[in-house]
Design goal:
This protein is mainly alpha-helical and about 270 residues long. The chain is about 65% helix and about 0% strand. The chain is built from 12 helices and no strands. Helix 7 runs antiparallel to helix 11.
Length: about 270
């Protein structure tokens, strides 16, 4: 795709791929790149986690569903990484495969281990409801590239919300064992939801460009509580965990996720297939 075609897609608000961003010759500022990087990190880490269910899900259809959600998240990550990389002369692969754990800025929620299926669905419910509100607001960013990426992403995340919500209801209103596992999963991941709503200096510097996380807390929590109560489960009272993901301080599981994801590329840098 030519630079002209890519720029036309941006101005028309059409779906934008990583290839479009690269072809358009766009350049993000350092602060915008840092913001795009944290959005990309969230999506990539969760995509890698969900990919771990392929061939292991409780139903064949779930192998496909979780694989598709993983691919959606990977697509979001690619677009954000490509845009972030324009500020520093780096490719999406550079940012995904050749940064160490402390250089990642992912939220702790996406780093929580898959656990059993109930825990994975609980994590997915929390993140998807956060993401759908985030991208809905980001569509109105004054940064056109971020806005166009978000406009495509929000449509896909709406499906992620529906998938997680339906499974929450199915498990919560199913057998005694399924409800127990779903509740246990919610109780574990609930400790990490508050980090999603933390503001910081980067957000302050991007007024009108970034979505202020604290503004998402009320709508996200209200929807979460409705999903949980409709599923005949109990809204957790788990205390909030210590945060730090945006500052490069991570949960213990992230290192294992990155090691698995990065090992082949690091062993054979520059290889193509």
């Amino acid at each position: 795709m030519s630079q002209f075609d890519s720029a036309t897609k941006i101005s028309a608000g059409q779906a934008l791929t990583a290839e479009d961003i690269a072809a358009a010759g766009l350049r993000a500022s350092d602060d915008v790149a840092r913001y795009a990087l944290r959005l990309a990190d969230d999506s990539l880490v969760l995509a890698q986690q969900l990919a771990g269910w392929i061939s292991r899900a409780p139903e064949l259809e779930e192998d496909i569903a979780l694989g598709n959600i993983s691919l959606d998240l990977l697509g979001h990550a690619r677009s954000f990484y490509t845009y972030a990389g324009t500020a520093w002369g780096k490719s999406e692969d550079d940012l995904a495969y050749f940064r160490d754990e402390t250089e990642y800025t992912s939220a702790h929620l996406v780093e929580v281990a898959n656990g059993d299926f109930g825990q994975t669905i609980a994590r997915q419910l929390l993140f998807s409801l956060y993401a759908v509100h985030l991208y809905d607001e980001l569509q109105r960013s004054t940064d056109e590239t971020l806005a166009v990426i978000a406009a495509k992403a929000v449509k896909e995340v709406e499906y992620h919300v529906d998938h997680a919500w339906q499974w929450t209801m199915r498990l919560g209103m199913g057998t005694e064992e399924s409800a127990r596992r779903m509740q246990a999963g919610l109780d574990i991941v609930w400790a990490y939801v508050e980090e999603l709503f933390e503001d910081d200096d980067l957000i302050d510097a991007l007024d009108g460009i970034a979505v202020r996380p604290s503004t998402l807390r009320e709508p996200v929590m209200a929807t979460l509580e409705r999903a949980i109560t409709e599923s005949e489960l109990t809204v957790p009272t788990t205390p909030a965990a210590v945060t730090g993901g945006r500052r490069g301080i991570h949960r213990e599981h992230l290192g294992f996720v990155l090691a698995e994801m990065q090992v082949l590329t690091r062993k054979h840098p520059g290889a193509t297939w």
